[in-house]
Amino acid sequence: MSTELLAPLDLAFWHLESDAHPMHLGALAVFDPAPGASAPQLLDLLGARAAAIPRLRMRVRDVLLPVGGAAWFTDKDFEVQRHVTRVVLPEGDFLTEAGRLAGELMEQPLGRGLPPWRMYLLDSPGDGPFAVLVKLHHALADGMRAVAIGAGIFDQIASAGAGRGAVNRRTPVPPRSWLPGPYEVAGMARERLGEVGRALGVGASVVRASRLDLRATTALAARSSGTRRLATAELDAATVQRIRRTEGGTANDVLLAVVAGALRRWMLERGGPLPGADPRALVPVSRRRPGGAATGNKLSAYLLGLPVGEPDPRERLRLVRTGMNRNKAAGPLRGAGAVAVLADQLPALAHRFGAPLAGNAARMLFDILVTSVPLPRSALSLGGCPLRAVYPMAPLARGQALAIALSTYGGRVQVGLVADGKALPDLDRLATALREELRDLHALVPTVPAPA
Asked: What is the pTM (predicted TM-score) of this model?
């Protein structure tokens, strides 16, 4: 039975979870139907491909050393039927019904005695589209790793890895004990001493970025009700690129400015005043190296004030671009975004006992999570059914009401908005505001002549 210690950041996500604050991320993948692809066949195919992904056969167990630590163990009693379920949606608009059910399913924490993931085949009553909802615990993977794991269900990825998978199934993984030897213990001690120094530097920057006045962004703050609501939006990727080419910066800068403008519209329509200080967005940054072997989370983040108080869309974009350029120049080890780096420097016992305190401190650092999840650029399918869209979903931090995740596929930017169901009953209006904001920003941008 193969084992692997949870990295410190993975352990932090594992212990941050509670019934009201599940720490899984997810995606709602929508497919168009194809001739001969029935729901039972698709369910069997989904289960077979999920079962062939080694990472999805592992569960978490506590270990003796390091004290307070935990490890991934291959589940010898793994049964994929426990993880893959079919749900037939009621009559109605498919995406609306799929989104409603996805929100309800995202409320439910993943069972800790099993590998921490679930997949749901959401089937329409007729011959229309269907969707696959994927839930992965954040301890299992960050956004990039989750895409790499989840992509194994698609025809193109599964067929490309079939040969490698066959070899892996014939070659057993040698067991590795979670009990370190004396030389490993000495090495761990030296590592801890070095990490203490690094943690002090990163921790100081986090403390300096923290704040005590939390009154400015009450629209995005809420005592958790344990409920979840999902809304989706689609933006034209070509429009985003046209704005980027004219105004400079990156496509992500444009999308962050669109989020800021949409929040401004939504707050004004609610009838309340705009916050006196710009809400802070935590913008995750992957520290994963191309081709790197890391399996868990490799994250930092940037901290960005979203300029909701600025009425001019182009000026909002300029402020976002300036803020992101400043973040990139400073690097990912400064400010509240370095919390993830700090977590990577702390011992396992600190995560086990400090998780409740760390979770409650999130509001002191940021107000909203805005993350971009990269997807493969090639066309994908499941059982011959073409993938239409993927709406990513991020977990909510304790005391926060909204998280926004974006991914680009098929010439569209798909946006998944996850909210506390009671705090933001008008989440659909915010999704509409995203489309309106991109339209209005594009209208203000000077036309760029097409190249000859």
From this structure: 0.85
